[in-house]
Amino acid sequence: MPSAALTTAAPTTAAPTTAAPTTGTPGVGPLLREWRQRAGVSQLDLALRADSSARHISFIETGKTRPSREMVLRLAEHLDVPVRERNALLVAAGYAPEYPESSLDSPALEVLRLGLDRLLAGYDPYPALVLDGTYRVWGANRGASLLLDGVAPELLAQPLNAMRITLHPRGLAPRILNFQEWRGHLLDQMRRQLALLRSEPLRALYEEVAAYPAPPGGDERAGERSPLALPLIVGINGRRLSFLSTIATFNTPVDVTVSELALETFLPADAETARHLAELAG
After folding, report:
1. Alpha-carbon span 42 to 206, nearest angstrom
2. From the CB of residue 75, how many other CB atoms can be counted at a distance below 10 Å?
3. Separation of alpha carbons 170 and 175, rounded Å
4. How many CA atoms lie within 13 A of 230 on its CB side?
5. In the prediction, which pLDDT does 75 show?
6. What are the tens digits of pLDDT across the range 224-261?
7. What is residue 51's DSSP assignment?
């Protein structure tokens, strides 16, 4: 597991270039209709939000009218379309992508990396991770290493993936005392993402981790509910530690990479866990 510093090996991505729709892929009209229907918005409601007309929206969706670049972006904004998918809409309409996809080690993201490093260090001794849209771990603090004791070495080889580490039977799974509940929560989270993103890497990861066998042993918290939120309950060195997970993302990102970064932190859910983490910090 990396220490507080973010790792700097990231996939190389090219700057946006002009692109035309690939033969056989849906045009921008059907894609916009799908996003509108997902949002539960009528053509009239969308037209009012976008300062257009229901007739114009209908013509766009049926392919009778090619929307301008500005109209595609305006409709995508009012439908809360993720940044990566906004680029896909533009390409489907025959325009160049609007949003760059920077490498995390790009000089343009240096200030962001330093800020995330400080956040990770500031959360110690509470575990904290920086993840991308496919749950690759780009950074972690010392507190996160507490959760990795006993994880198989092959799961700790780069690139680390939080879903594999958590759900694999040679990973954290055997020590998660409410494994069935936590597994269900994570798989539901991935399904919600897949409903918004056409991400083949994320779908492949989902299919992989969903097929992992459950570790031997029962689920001691089956049916029990926390009054606050579903905790992650882990048995570590004979101690029962309970954490509440929080996830922070960036507001109004204009870069695909930044839009998919998330800071996940694990806060103590009970006094025993808080005391143990304080002891480790001391």
Report:
1. 32
2. 25
3. 10
4. 14
5. 97
6. 555 678 999 999 888 999 999 999 999 989 999 999 99
7. T
- Spatial contact of 27 and 9, defined as CB atoms under 8 Å apart: no
Query: Which H or E run contains 71?
Result: helix 69-78
- Gyration radius (Cα) of the chain, Å: 22
At the fourth CATH level, the homologous superfamily of domain 28-92 is lambda repressor-like DNA-binding domains (1.10.260.40)
Query: What's this model's pTM, rounded to 2 decimal places?
Result: 0.82
pLDDT for residue 196: 83
What local confidence, expressed as pLDDT, does residue 192 receive? 92
For the ranges 16-20, 125-129, 155-159, 216-220, the lowest mean pLDDT is seen at 16-20
Q: 190 is written with which tokens?
A: 């991935």
Domain borders along the chain are 28-92, 107-281
DSSP 177: T
**Do 107-281 and 28-92 fall under one CATH topology?**
no
Q: Which amino acid is at 282?
A: G
Q: What is the 3-state secondary structure (H, E, C) of 257-275?
A: HHHCCEEEEEEECCHHHHH
Q: How far apart are CA 146 and CA 234, in angstroms?
A: 10
The residue to which tokens 């930044």 are assigned: 258
Can you name the CATH fold of 107-281? Beta-Lactamase (3.30.450)
pLDDT digit string, tens, across residues 162-206: 999 999 999 999 999 999 999 999 999 999 999 888 889 999 999
Q: Which two tokens stand for residue 197?
A: 């993103």
Does position 125 have pLDDT exceeding 80, yes or no? yes
Separation CA 74–CA 280 (nearest Å): 50
Residue 48: how many other CB atoms lie within 10 Å: 14
